[in-house]
Design brief:
Layout lengths: L7 H12 L5 H8 L3 H13 L19 E9 L5 H8 L5 E6 L6 E7 L2 H12 L4 E9 L16
Length: about 160
């Protein structure tokens, strides 16, 4: 795909939206010194190009009862089952990220569980039957920070 041309207005819009995805278009327009229609068109274009993939509501998992966050690396018994395993992982709501990786693991996931017992239940009762050779888990004590990738003028 050919690289798209972006200007300083596109970059400014992306900075504002990554800081607050609910920021009204008219407020963005005022801060950028352009019309609301111009901002609307720019954001539609950025959506259409797939630069903006969507908007989300971020929920603190610990505030709604998920006290354990873990990363689990999977070793598949049969790597040709990758697509099938991914489809089954999509059916487990506690799995919030899934990555196909290089290196040690065939698949790497992020999971939120109510507690360690719940996590063990998910691994033994829902994941082991997916065709896994074995798993390795890393428990996160606390997310220190999370952010979007930097938006640099020469990066898009």
């Amino acid at each position: 795909m050919a690289r798209q041309q972006f200007d300083s207005l596109d970059i400014k819009i992306l900075h504002m939206l990554t800081g607050n995805a609910r920021k009204p278009f008219l407020e963005i327009a005022r801060e950028c010194g352009v019309s609301g229609a111009a901002i609307h068109q720019r954001i539609q274009r950025l959506n259409g190009l797939g630069i903006i993939k969507g908007y989300e509501c971020l929920i603190d998992p610990s505030k709604i009862g998920y006290q354990t966050c873990a990363y689990i690396g999977f070793f598949l018994r049969d790597p040709s089952e990758f697509a099938n395993v991914i489809e089954k992982l999509k059916q487990i709501p506690e799995v919030v990220e899934c990555h196909y990786t290089t290196g040690k693991y065939d698949i790497f996931i992020k999971i939120h569980a109510r507690n360690n017992d719940h996590m063990l239940h998910l691994i033994h009762e829902k994941m082991q039957m997916l065709g896994l050779g074995r798993t390795e888990s890393l428990i996160s004590f606390k997310e220190v920070f999370k952010r979007q990738v930097p938006i640099l003028e020469d990066s898009i």
